[in-house]
Amino acid sequence: xxxxxxxxxxxxxxxxxxxxxxxxxxxxxxxxxxxxxxxxxxxxxxxxxxxxxxxxxxxxxxxxxxxxxxxxxxxxxxxxxxxxxxxxxxxxxxxxxxxxxxxxxxxxxxxxxxxxxxxxxxxxxxxxxxxxxxxxxxxxxxxxxxxxxxxxxxxxxxxxxxxxxxxxxxxxxxxxxxxxxxxxxxxxxxxxxxxxxxxxxxxxxxxxxxxxxxxxxxxxxxxxxxxxxxxxxxxxxxxxxxxxxxxxxxxxxxxxxxxxxxxxxxxxxxxxxxxxxxxxxxxxxxxxxxxxxxxxxxxxxxxxxxxxxxxxxxxxxxxxxxxxxxxxxxxxxxxxxxxxxxxxxxxxxxxxxxxxxxxxxxxxxxxxxxxxxx
Length: 374
Fold this sequence. Notes:
Blueprint lengths: L1 H15 L46 E10 L6 H19 L3 E9 L3 H9 L4 H18 L6 E4 L3 H16 L3 E11 L4 E3 L18 E10 L5 H10 L4 E2 L12 H7 L3 H6 L5 E2 L1 E2 L7 E2 L2 E6 L1 H5 L2 H4 L10 H5 L7 E5 L3 H15 L7 E4 L9
Parallel strand pairs: 1-2, 1-12, 2-3, 7-13, 12-13
Antiparallel strand pairs: 4-5, 4-6, 6-8, 9-11, 10-11
Helix pairs in contact: 1-2, 3-4
């Protein structure tokens, strides 16, 4: 795992600071002693880098905004959560050493049907459940000495304000309309699935569970309107999606899913983008749609905006444009490859609609498995 994280980080850092690696430095292979174990008397301090602080960074330093995903609080943090966050922390510390003004954003995604269901299963309420799991993430990051600067929760009032203002801007652009949707829905993904994405018996290829048939009156985002703009963005910015093989990755086990989720961006977009539902009539636990309290905003349309709302000043009234001026665009979204579509297709189109700048890079890392991390 350590070797994999090291390689991924080095490749990513090369993209941000090529001159630094012009000497083609080659690190010696990492050798671990299997018999070594951490004991109770082991000093944690010797493990920690001292570059976590930004107190000495000049006020005119070049900004560098890095984000992890906002972790979903249906369950406590796991190895995959730590994998992404440790990698992001290493990059953040390295950028601080380069003298940049780093803003390291992480947080929790707390709305949606799956959260309400998880809370009910635990005999709890959604707010109490979210408080408990969100705190478990903060505790873990403290134990791992993660040097984040901003921790955003999508249940924060400032986040709701930013989401509603963003929604209104997209609506004013003419990119939101109301229509009926009849399709197959994966509760775990909280997403409607196209038939060609599914396995036998309408099973979701991610969760291997059957999708359920639903018919709803929803609000839709006109994603198809931005197909050409997204294609042009990818052609003009070859580093927008990294590693580069994410554009053409092929996976034999879930061939159909991978071609739509990960092979993505160029091939997925060229196959024809479809408008997607951005509200739910059957979900109460979420941010109400402005001027229509019978619907809540779709969890991904909500959560992606946490990267912006995290930049807002807690001491001031939240304002979208003022918040954007506090550090946006993000220099790097570091995510797992399973959520690449949301970050490299949906998110850029949403930002275009709202008239905001796109992030500079989306890096989709592989999964931790028993044998390897592709």
